[in-house]
Amino acid sequence: MSGCVYLTTMSRPTRCIVSTAALRHNLEVARRHAPGAGVWAVVKADAYGHGIDAALSGFDAADGWALLEWDKAIEIRARDPARPILMLEGCFCASDVARAARYRLDIVVHEETQIDWIARTSPSECAGLRVWLKRNSGMNRLGFDPGAFEAARERLQTLEPVENLSFLTHFANADRAGAERTSVAEFAAATPGANSIRSAANSAAVLSMPDASFDWIRPGIMLYGASPFGDRSAASLGLLPAMRLESTLIAVRTIAAGACVGYGSTYVAPRPMRIGVVACGYADGYPRHAPNGTPVLVDGSPSMIAGRVSMDMLTVDLDRVPTARIGSRVELWGDHIPVDTVAGHAGTIGYELLCAISSRVPRTTVDSVLLEAET
Ligand SMILES: *Cc1c(COP(=O)(O)O)cnc(C)c1O
Predict the structure, then answer these.
(1) What are phi and psi of 352, to 5 degrees?
(2) Domain range enclosing 132
(3) Which end of the chain is less packed: N or C, by CB atoms within 10 Å?
(4) Which is the catalytic residue, given 44, 48, 134, 351?
(5) Closest CA to 73 of 38, 34, 95, 47
């Protein structure tokens, strides 16, 4: 190998590799947890940073798509004429009502104003609407309170363009064992009858609350191979990481005991040591708050952050990587370093890191399960 692991058309050796095989596997895991339920693959935020292309291909076995960005939804509709697409935040303005009908997008209704918009749109412009009425189950963000839910349902039922009325809720604490037991029962009781089509479960609920599966599940984070739980790893849930963020060393230097590294001199060498400079920083989406000691993999060996993460670079301790040299491959997260581990060190969650991959990082899609097998 020449030692140059990136294509000359790329701007620098930092890149993001997405495995459609891992996406496919994780979708199967979700389906196994909710036998009989339809699966909306949640692809908001550019498929949690993985890209719509990879998602459409990796989740080809999904029953529908769920997101909230209208431009992306219309793009998906052009590529997938048949499957349902659920708009998780529904209409943002009155003219979205006609767009929903035109592109056959299912819309969540969480606000009285959204019902007004439907009522004000001429039925000829929005016939055949498929509406999901959202119930507030304690998140207190979106959705009708229990006391207003029934009236909203009755009002929607009188509107001519509403062809289909289904029900949805979103839990605030599905990641805490038992915390939503009452909400599940209340949602079930508020939406009874054999004809009610219902959806409640995000990833945490899919994985831990079988009675919340109802008719359609809405897994997001688990499909991308990260864990919705603070105390359970993705691997322990049978999930495969779908993204590898990687770069290379662009400099290696030896520093004396007591020498400092990076802005603010937050790392002080305890002994003479080698420091590696990696071409990846917070402008790429690596978290600036990742402290000294956050794990990275250099040339296949464990290493860790030493010094403050800067915009375009980060620095690592090469003491246990004798083979490290300029051009050595670095995994920031992926097969060996779970994104959730990096997130834990940085005081956040895997979701935030995956979504924050910046547009300057080129993305490659591969079909193998092992992200690192690809060069
Ligand atoms: C994002 C989202 C989901 C998916 O949540 P995960 O925790 O990523 O599984 C499900 N439902 C709604 C309404 C959402 O906004």
Answers:
(1) -65, -40
(2) 20-231
(3) N
(4) 44
(5) 47
Ligand 1 center from residue 95 Cα (angstroms)? 25
User: Is the beta carbon of 228 within 6 A of some atom in ligand 1?
Assistant: yes
Spatial contact of 249 and 276, defined as CB atoms under 8 Å apart: yes
Look up tokens 């620098």; give the residue: 12
Quick one: how far is CA 315 from the chain centroid?
A: 27
Within-domain flag for 371: no
Decide: pTM greater than 0.85: yes
Torsion of CA 313, 315, 321, 325, to 10 degrees: 50
CATH of residue 206: 3.20.20.10
pLDDT tens, N- to C-terminus, the chain (375 residues): 445 656 556 789 999 999 999 999 999 999 999 999 999 999 999 999 999 999 999 999 999 999 999 999 999 999 999 999 999 999 999 999 999 999 999 999 999 999 999 999 999 999 999 999 999 999 999 999 999 999 999 999 999 999 999 999 999 999 999 999 999 999 999 997 777 999 999 999 999 999 999 999 999 999 999 999 999 999 999 999 999 999 999 999 999 999 999 999 999 999 999 999 999 999 999 999 999 999 999 999 999 999 999 999 999 999 999 999 999 999 999 999 999 999 999 999 999 999 999 999 999 999 988 776 554
Q: Could you tell me the distance, in angstroms and rounded to a whole number, from the CA of residue 322 to the centre of ligand 1? A: 43
Q: How many CB atoms lie within 10 A of CB 53?
A: 15
Catalytic member of 6, 72, 263, 351? 263
Q: Under DSSP, is residue 332 helix (H, G, I), strand (E, B) or coil? A: strand
Picking from 231, 254, 288, the residue at the C-terminal end of a domain is: 231
Residue 356 lies in a domain: yes
Confirm or reject: Cβ of 199 under 6 Å from ligand 1: no
Is the C-beta atom of 15 inside 6 A of ligand 1? no
Q: Is the CB of 203 under 6 A from ligand 1?
A: yes
Structural domain count, the chain: 2
